[in-house]
Amino acid sequence: MNQQSDHTIVMAGGCFWCLDAWFRQVRGVNHVESGYTGGGDAPADYYSVCTGTTGHAEAVAVTFDPTVISDDTVLDMFFTMHNPTTLNRQGYDVGTQYRSALFTNSKQQSKLFEAAIERNQPNWAEPIVTNIEPLGPWYAAETEHQNYYQRNRQAGYCHVIIDPKLSAARARFVKFLESDTPASNSLG
User: Is Transmembrane helix tagged as a keyword (predicted)?
Assistant: First the structure.
């Protein structure tokens, strides 16, 4: 792995457990970290973010090798793993902390995100409401939220919410999956 050439995309699409579970299975993904961003400089933790008053979103930072998987494919996966047409909501999870957002660190990345929204809009009957926001401070989520799905597969949320999302994404992106990726073997 050549870390200098790796790309990182920070994205929010509802509860971070779902995106975390998916991207840990994807070939070329070297690291996945759940965390909080988008709320300014105030430190964030799970309980404060869940109040919906901090402005932070539950997000994942996905670091990948672009020679194995493209930025476009990672973004198409993001738009498959959540409903980007619901404002501040994913299923039963409601609040700005569950918003659909892509956090950008450059003009080039903003253009990439804008193109991904346009490319994925035909897949949805309603307009995509995904925000493109500047990447601000990143606060890693607590250990119990890292790789949650792998460690809690029998939990109700995993069966009812995460499993159906994973099945839908697998149907579209099966050729990008492998069972032994660095991200899938990492607990944090």
Answer: no
Label residue 188 by pLDDT band (50, 70, 90): very low
pLDDT at 16 over 80: yes
Q: What is the pTM of this model?
A: 0.91
The answer as to whether 137 is a domain residue is yes
pLDDT tens digits along 22-35:
999 999 999 999 99
8 Å CB contact between 57 and 154? no
Let me know if residue 188 belongs to a domain.
no
pLDDT digits (tens, 9 = 90+) for 121-138: 999 999 999 999 999 999
Domain count, the chain: 1
The answer as to whether 127 is a domain residue is yes
Q: Which residues are catalytic?
A: 15
What's the rounded Cα separation, in Å, for the pair 183 and 70? 17
Distances from the Cα of 5 to the Cα of 23, 78, 134, 176, angstroms? 19, 21, 22, 20
